[in-house]
Sequence to fold (209 residues):
Amino acid sequence: MSYGTNNISLIKMVPFKDVIVYGRVEYDHQVTLYARFVIKHVFQVLPLTSEDASVRSGNIYFIEKTNEASYEANLLNRVNETVKTRGLTEPYTSYSHFDGKWMYRLLFSTKEPFKALLQAKIINDTIVGTAIYVNIAEPPSECPPLVEGFCVKGYVRVYDRRANRCIHYDGCTKSGPCVDDIPICVPGYDLVSIPSRPNGCNMYYCDPS
Fold:
């Protein structure tokens, strides 16, 4: 097995069920008894609460969203094994300040090999997701350089975070009162804060560690 040193360390450190590897088998034609699995990409499960981890189960799928209320679940490593459903659930968007737009972008809009994988069961025409695996390598950066302007007295710089987690300068806004309520992320997530409209107060996100 071959892959970058840092990624091999990750594979060895985390539980086997928390990692999916993507690659190909190469044969040494001079040594016919042996083959080598070359790892191209590594997917790691997004952290779950202990309660959600205890009920994690199901097959691994690629998910396509066909319209606002319909989905297709394509079984990993199977050709023409697709299930059409009319609903999808997952545990992550119930977590404090989890960025669901980022996650759904990886599930629905991102192309392979950076497209996220969903562990799920199909129950009563609904995809019941129990875990999501994301490529440990982010998709190629789409983030433009952050260009900031000058704000006059009484105004502060604010920013906007997009579904790809890129930060965009959003101009100046008049500074106003903010609620001093800093959220607590569930274990496995780090708190990120971004000054945002309308008053320049922090917008909080809990991103995977």
